[in-house]
Structures are given as C-alpha cells and as structure tokens.
Design a protein that fits this description.
The protein has about 290 residues and is mainly α. The chain has 13 helices and no strands. It has helices at about 1-5, 10-20, 20-35, 35-65, 65-75, 75-90, 95-110, 125-150, 160-190, 195-220, 220-245, 250-265, 280-290. The protein is globular.
C-alpha cells in the first residue's frame, strides 16, 4: 500500500479541484502546481506558442491588406482539424471536412469589410506577411490541440490545468510587456489607465477563457471553432439590435454558411471527443458499410 500511495493517480484530485472543499482544493493546487514543476513546464508550451501566434498575427496584419489577412487567417480552422487528426489519432468524415471548410468560408464572409481608400501609404512586405500568417495559423492549430491532449490525457482537474496554463501565460506576457514598454510601466505603474470598464472587459475575457477550456475538455477544438463562429454571428446580430448596425449581403450569406456547417458537422458521426490510439476492426467495417 505504501508505494501505491506515493504514486497515486491525480483522479482523486479531480474531486478536490472541482467539487471538493476549499482545503482539499488548496492541497490539490500545492501538489499539482507548486509540487509539479514538470507539469507546469508542460503547460508553458501552449503559452509560448499562443504568444508567438499573437505576435505573428500582428506582423501579418502590418504587412497585408485587411481583406487578405481576414481570409488567410481563417485557415486556422482547417489547420486545427488537421492537427486534431494528426496529433490525437482521430478521423473525420468527408462531410465533416466539407463542413469545416464551409465554416472557414462563412466566417470570412461574416467578418468581410470592403476595402476603403486611404491617403496614408504604409510600406508593406507581402512575403513577410504571408510567412507570418502561416506561422500564426500553425501555432493556433498546434497550441489548441496540444492543450486538448494535455487535458484529456490525465485525470488532473480542469481548474488546476487552467491555473497551470495561465501561470505560464502570465510569465510570458509580463516578459513581453517589460521588453516592449518597460520604461512606461516603471514610470506610470502597471495598472495605469485601468478603469472600471477595463476591469470588466478583463473579467469577461477570463470567463470566456474558462468557458473555452470547458468546451475543449468535453468536446474538442473543432467544436470550439464552430462555437466561436456562432458567437461572431450572434454578436453581430446583437450589434444590429443595440447599435443599429446595417446587415450586408455578405454577412447574411456568411451567417447562412456558418449555420449550415454547424448542422452538417453535428450530424450522427463517429465520436471524436475522446482520444483513441487506434480504431478497432469492427469500427472500420462499420464505416465501410455506411
């Protein structure tokens, strides 16, 4: 019993992190965060990749037209599906692949804005822009699927995993802040300009991040992409009601494509929410006979 106690699985910590008492939660945090530097290092990988993605997206937007950036950046949706297949050993049907690319086109149309002439001439490097967008797309797919694999490959609590991820993210972003604007931060303070509205936006972003991790935990990254697309459509509809935003033909067509793609992807299919090392022969035979 002694050796088994020293190598006990974190399964018991799930209850502590999600449904247990505060004392058990604190114990779980000490064991999984402070007492597990390897696990913390493991979750620093997606933090670094996400930081690289954000910076590459900024470089791409600085060197590409807004319309070109808008279209090419949506390739992160099929890239996520490809990473899901390669990294998690899952399979998607032809209809699912079709719905993924349809979602990509729908999101592009929903967010499409006609190019506007401007007198400001900005020197751009298209090759640098396309290279940066390619790196950003690959980072988006890899980081999301990597985090999903970490979540589903152990019994560690979802909330503990979030804390591990965001601790790494805080370190990475603080480093970036002090490298880029260290003098201003030291002069005016880190929280200079933080109003109640800013804090409220931070709160909403935090809740959104927690919600995203729940979606990834209990579905997958592809479904996260579909839910994000639906959120874009709903937020635009809300803007129409609240701010009188004018609906365009491209938005209507894009929203229709998003809705159809969600319906097609949700049709009865093979379960893709669990990591399966390999398919059984019976499942293959079942797919052939469909």
């Amino acid at each position: 019993m002694g050796p088994r106690l020293s190598t006990v699985s974190p399964r018991g910590l799930v209850a502590a992190g999600e449904t247990g008492s505060l004392a058990r939660l604190i114990t779980s945090l000490k064991e999984n965060v402070l007492g597990s530097p390897k696990e913390l290092l493991k979750l620093s990988v997606p933090s670094l990749v996400y930081a690289l993605q954000n910076n590459m997206a900024f470089v791409a937007l600085s060197n590409l037209d807004a319309a070109v950036y808008q279209v090419t950046y949506q390739l992160k949706i099929p890239c996520t599906a490809l990473c899901t297949v390669l990294m998690l050993s899952r399979s998607l049907s032809k209809l699912q692949w079709f719905s993924v690319f349809m979602l990509c086109g729908g999101v592009t149309l929903v967010q499409w804005k006609p190019a506007q002439a401007t007198k400001v001439q900005v020197e751009q490097n298209p090759w640098l822009g396309f290279g940066a967008i390619a790196v950003a797309v690959l980072c988006s797919g890899f980081a999301g699927v990597y985090f999903e694999k970490v979540l589903k490959s152990s019994d560690t609590s979802l909330w503990v995993r979030n804390i591990q991820l965001y601790l790494s993210g805080i370190v990475v972003t603080l480093f970036g802040v002090y490298m880029s604007e260290g003098a201003q931060v030291l002069e005016k303070g880190f929280f200079y300009g933080y109003t109640y509205c800013v804090w409220f936006v931070i709160f909403l972003a935090s809740v959104g991040g927690l919600y995203t991790s729940v979606v990834v935990k209990y579905t997958d990254n592809i479904m996260k992409g579909f839910s994000a697309a639906a959120a874009i459509v709903l937020s635009t509809v809300a803007s129409v009601i609240l701010f009188g935003l004018q609906i365009t033909v491209t938005f209507s067509l894009g929203a229709l494509l998003v809705c159809i793609s969600i319906y097609l992807y949700g049709l009865p299919r093979q379960d893709t929410t669990k990591i399966q090392p390999s398919e059984t022969k019976s499942s293959k035979e079942r797919l052939v006979t469909v």
